[in-house]
Give the backbone structure.
Amino acid sequence: MNLGTLVFIVAVAIFLSMMILTFLLVMPRVKARTDLKHRIAVVSGNAKAGSRARADRGGGDGRKRNIQTRLRELEDAKAKKSFAVKMRETLRQAGLRTSLRSYFLLCSALSLVSVMFYLLLGYPMAGIVPVAITIGFGLPRYVVAVLSKRRVSKFTKEFANAVDIIVRGIKSGLPVGECLNIIASESPDPVGGVFREIVESQKLGLTLDAALHRAQEQIRTAELQFFAIVLAIQSQTGGNLADTLQNLSSILRDRKKMADKVKALSSEAKSSAGIIGSLPFLMTALLYLVSPEYITPLFTDDLGLMLIAGGLAWMSIGVFIMKQMINFEV
């Protein structure tokens, strides 16, 4: 048995071990989430199947059932969306006005450029497809995800203040439409931009419920979903809208505090993961600067390329495991 075959067998064994470890670490979290969704579905189903006498009891119970029904409808609609619709909404959430066709043309152009540079550098042909997919489609998707996350974070930070504006406006006698106009003109983006679209949609003849549904395509956050459900249910059942929105504002601020607390508690683990993940690249760069002839065979020899591919695969699995360990849903 030659050295290459031995290295390949060891690499496959280590890879399978890492896959088993990943499965053992991730599956309990997936099972817990599945059980939680199942319990929510059971509760919602029981609420829907209740007797008529219990359905007529108290406005609070009816409102809870309406909210549960609306949440189920939103989840079902979200699950039925095609890839093109989801991708278009992701681009809108990132604040990009480009069309889906232009986005994929850009991805294709990046793929072609990356393949040309890869061939000019003289690397093996076996790596063309991974490089084209990673740079051409993975990199733009990552950039869009970062922009989307940053925009959602800004929206969440200012959204509670926008709800407070509506509360104060209603208590002072202003209609809801005028309060939305104030938020659209006075609040910073992206909150101002989202509410401007809501106001413009209403001017075009859409109902408030339909305008809020369109706004959720631009910003997909739980906070905006709660706001839309509260207004929709309030328009159907009536009641004190100012008090309801005041309670919603308090909930949004508590969620923000909890998210900040989780971020602070997990910052040490994230820093450790970043340091550990960057060490192999930093050490490789330092070795190349100190002794290029020592590290060059790693990039030119077939066995070295196999080791690099295996190392990147194992590092990706490790990063995925650490991300799952510090990923908390608030």
Remarks:
- Residues 81-257 form a domain with the Receptor-associated Protein fold (CATH 1.20.81.30).
- Residues 43-59 have pLDDT under 50 and may be disordered.
- DSSP finds 15 helices and no strands in the chain.
